[in-house]
Amino acid sequence: MTHRHRYTTGATTMSAGDPGAESRVLRISDTMTTVDLGMPGLAAPGDPGPLGAPLPGDRPHAPGLIDRFGRTATDLRVSLTDRCNLRCTYCMPAEGLPTLPRDAVMTRAEIVRLVGIATRDLGVRQVRFTGGEPLLRGDLVEIVRDVAALENRPEISLTTNAVGLDHRARDLRAAGLDRVNISLDTLDPDTYARMARRPFLARTLAGIDAAAREFDVVKINAVLVRGLNLDHAADLLSWCLERGFELRFIEQMPLDADHAWDRSAMVTAAEVRAQLGERFDLAPDEEPRDGAPAERFTVSGHGGGPRLGRVGIIASVTEPFCADCRRTRLTAEGAVRACLFAHTESDLLGPLRAGANDATLADLWRTAMWGKWAGHDMAAAGFVQPSRTMSAIGG
Ligand code: SAM
Ligand code: SF4
Question: Which domains, and CATH codes, for the chain?
Fold first, then answer.
């Protein structure tokens, strides 16, 4: 069947009947925006899609992961497992959560196939493996190696608590991992043990040392909790600056299993800036933010001291960046989540296992993203916390 819908990209105009069309669109997608996509010129809803069936709802034909609000997702987070060896208070309950049966979790081959569809057909350029704790996957190195071997190789990164990373950092680097983000909330062993409910600070620090040896860029993620580690923020920044790590503070989001999150008690980005300001001067970074969730600051000593490095603050709650969101997520069970806070998911693993071809899976993914909402509204009285926790979604 021939399709004659025309996609205008600003640089090129092409027809959906042209077999080279999608790859050309994706090659220029670095600069693609809604305007570039020429949204008004897209085919009418209800027209046959690439699979010959009418597109659901009002979704227009477009190769990438676009939504109704003009955003294009190019950044994929893949949860490799819902299991974890820590029990961070803001993420998991003390007793853990019921874990998925092994056969419900995507296999290495399934992950690589879906990531391949995302990078080849859907315009995804960055892939971050997360969880749960991704280092608990025995085949993590192989997954990274397979994704690095994809034709449209994405930038590959990992978010981890680093427990055990010292044994695998070199292999991960050799397999093609580009960057690592490590979660570390405090340098105090007792506070770490209280926050993670496991006494593993030394193991995390060993993982960080190994990451520093292997990777050019190491970022540290920290969540500040009032009464626990708020007053550790400046020490943590100092430690990171000395080692050349970029520290990012993440506002605590309502994704804990205990539903104990309280808007009035959480540590806000403004408070983080004030805490750090007691020891450092922070100046807004001049590099464009370019859709990045963290607002970055250049750090120097008080009174015009030398530049010491950078720090980022991710103000998901108090200064949400939903309008610039470029994320799409796959849960460990192979479901697309358009937003961390979504209440619905679109299963890809079921259709994949039932024999769906790549074009069908790509189209299911596009439809899931077309349904993405404008944003969460955590500040609103009617905000409903998703039933999944951060560990089960893949942070
Ligand atoms: N286990 C890995 C780790 O901790 O880095 C990867 C998964 S974890 C869910 C990913 C990130 O989410 C971590 O940096 C963690 O601090 C953050 N996180 C977890 N729960 C959060 C919450 N309720 N609010 C904000 N960030 C959270
Ligand atoms: Fe595990 Fe990461 Fe959640 Fe902590 S934040 S419990 S390390 S998944």
Answer: 5-43+64-393 (3.20.20.70)
Q: Which atom of ligand 2 has the smallest separation from the CA of 131? A: 8
Cα torsion through 262, 264, 268, 271, rounded to 10: -140
Pocket, ligand 1, Cβ cutoff 6 A: 84, 90-91, 130-131, 133, 159-161, 183, 221, 223, 250, 252-253, 255-256, 390-391, 395
User: Which DSSP string do the residues of 146-203 spell out, in sequence order?
Assistant: HHHTSTTPPEEEEEE--TTGGGTHHHHHHHT--EEEEE---S-HHHHHHHHSS--HHH
pLDDT tens per residue, range 64-110: 999 999 999 999 999 999 999 999 999 999 998 889 999 999 999 99
Give the 3-state secondary structure of residue 376.
coil
- What's the length of the chain? 395
Query: What tens digit of pLDDT does each residue of 212-254 get?
Result: 999 999 999 999 999 999 999 999 999 999 999 999 999 998 8
Structure tokens at 64: 């990438």
Q: Which among 258, 152, 154, 164 is positioned nearest to 202, based on CA atoms?
A: 164
- The Cα angle at residue 47 between residues 28 and 357, in degrees rounded to 5: 65
Instruction: Write the DSSP symbol of residue 338.
Output: S
User: Which residues, including other chains, have CB under 8 Å from residue 382's CB and lie 6 or more apart?
Assistant: none
Supply the residue whose CA is at minimum distance from atom 7 of ligand 1: 131
Residues with CB under 6 A from ligand 2: 84, 86-88, 91-92, 131-133, 161, 183, 390-391
* Ligand that comes closest to the CA of residue 80: 1
